[in-house]
Write a structure and sequence with these properties.
Keywords: Signal. The chain is α/β, with parallel strands linked by helices. It is built from twelve helices and 18 strands.
């Protein structure tokens, strides 16, 4: 499943294209034959804005080639935009704008998967066979990513997964070449539970009657019960439902302390929950705070307590401050959105692994360097868990508040949930 708004597959959400032009001075290339003239113009503007300073003379060492798979067109276009922007800025950050690491030029080749697993396999094969990349990164869609995982094993190349969230990526479908900087669905569920669940708390749930809705609630419930919470009702309206009255009535009758919602799509229950005065009756609504575009649909949820994977004001560290400033500088004063820091984290993880391996590009040496490796990111310290290569990371307990100058409710930090608190179950059974 694709990475998405909170609710679809138990996760979060959202959004254009950034093409990294081929250039000797930037050591960055892009392959995207379906790019529109507008996209090409955007890419040219971006390339000009990010042009690296003249490199040092010591750039004759073997290049480090990185193939990035992303949804650069189609429904998940925004995922690709945010991730590739973040990845590009991550390489600039770690190389101080030169795109050269200890004399090794870094070459980035972006391929558009079009959010189609067969296309993702085709593009990944091209990166591995023709371009001879040292690393794969991606993809925006869990379906695309799952299709590509066997290729990482077949070609014996490390794949850094970002931002796809399906548990099976570091679970049933995992192999030793897979590392994930993005969080997985169970991390979202654990964070959601950690934000509200404790001994004696009564919780109701609302999710679509589908695999992603029921799986999301199951993971959340598992985590919340461990923290001492109890469940008074679980409501599963049809995935295409537009009238939630019977479900909301049962929630009101159950009188929970919290209503935890897993949802995605245009038929969201937010307005009806407000109309039926769920919060006014003393029931607190909780869910994941998604990207900025999705937050603009949640003005009825001011006061909600939930969790966030990332919002630009939540992490307090120098890398995030650099990212926010740089993103504003490059992209018309825009702040980095939900998946931008993930792209940057993937870049920083690769750079740290290569340095830790002493620039020995043997894959087994790289894997050994990455297992258990800690590295700094815009979200603070992350660590690749040795057992399944899932990056443990902080998440944020938040409240949605109304602020002047914003046309959406802003996630306000209640507390940072550290990596040990949000660690998901190990599901790879390896």
């Amino acid at each position: 499943m694709p990475t998405k708004k909170w609710g679809r597959g138990g996760s979060l959400a959202v959004l254009t294209t950034m093409l990294l032009l081929s250039s000797a001075c930037t050591s960055t290339t892009t392959s995207n034959s379906s790019a529109s003239p507008t996209a090409a113009a955007t890419a040219a503007t971006t390339a000009a804005a990010t042009k690296a300073p003249a490199e040092s003379a010591a750039t004759n060492k073997t290049p480090i080639k990185i193939g990035v798979l992303a949804s650069m067109t189609g429904a998940l276009e925004s995922y690709g935009k945010q991730t590739t922007r973040g990845f590009e800025m991550g390489i600039d950050y770690v190389t101080k704008g030169t795109k050269v690491l200890d004399g090794h030029p870094i070459q980035i080749i972006v391929e558009d998967t079009e959010t189609k697993p067969d296309v993702a396999v085709q593009k990944a094969t091209k990166l591995l066979e023709k371009d001879k990349v040292d690393f794969l990164v991606g993809s925006s869609s869990s379906g695309d990513t799952l299709a590509v995982l066997p290729l990482a094993q077949e070609y014996k190349k490390v794949m850094v997964v970002e931002p796809a969230v399906a548990d099976s990526i570091t679970g049933a479908s995992w192999n030793k070449y897979i590392f994930r900087t993005g969080r997985n669905s169970s991390q979202d569920a654990v964070a959601g539970a950690a934000a509200i669940a404790k001994q004696g708390v009564k919780i109701a749930t609302l999710a679509p009657d589908s695999a992603f809705g029921r799986d999301g609630i199951a993971a959340f419930k598992e985590a919340a019960v461990k923290l001492g919470a109890s469940f008074v009702t679980e409501q599963y309206p049809g995935a295409a439902a537009t009238d939630f009255t019977p479900n909301i009535q049962k929630i009101l009758e159950a009188k929970p302390d919290y209503l935890f919602v897993v949802w995605a799509g245009a038929n969201s229950p937010w307005k009806q929950l407000q109309d039926m005065k769920v919060q006014a009756s003393g029931i607190k609504i909780s869910t994941g705070a998604p990207d900025i575009v999705a937050l603009k649909t949640m003005n009825d949820l001011v006061g909600m307590e939930g969790f966030s994977v990332y919002y630009n004001t939540l992490p307090n560290n120098d890398i995030n401050k650099w990212l926010v400033d740089e993103n504003k500088k490059r992209f018309n004063n825009e702040v980095p959105d939900l998946f931008t820091p993930g792209g940057m984290s993937a870049a920083l993880a690769i750079a740290e692994a290569v340095k830790k391996a002493g620039f020995d590009m043997n894959t087994d040496t790289i894997i050994k360097a990455m297992e258990g490796m800690s590295f700094e990111t815009p979200k603070g310290t992350m660590k690749f868990r040795a057992e399944d290569h899932q990056a443990l990371q902080s998440m944020y307990a938040i409240k949605l508040v109304k602020k002047d100058g914003f046309d959406y409710p802003v996630p306000e930090l209640m507390r940072e949930m550290k990596m040990d608190e949000t660690a998901p179950p190990i599901r790879n059974k390896k």
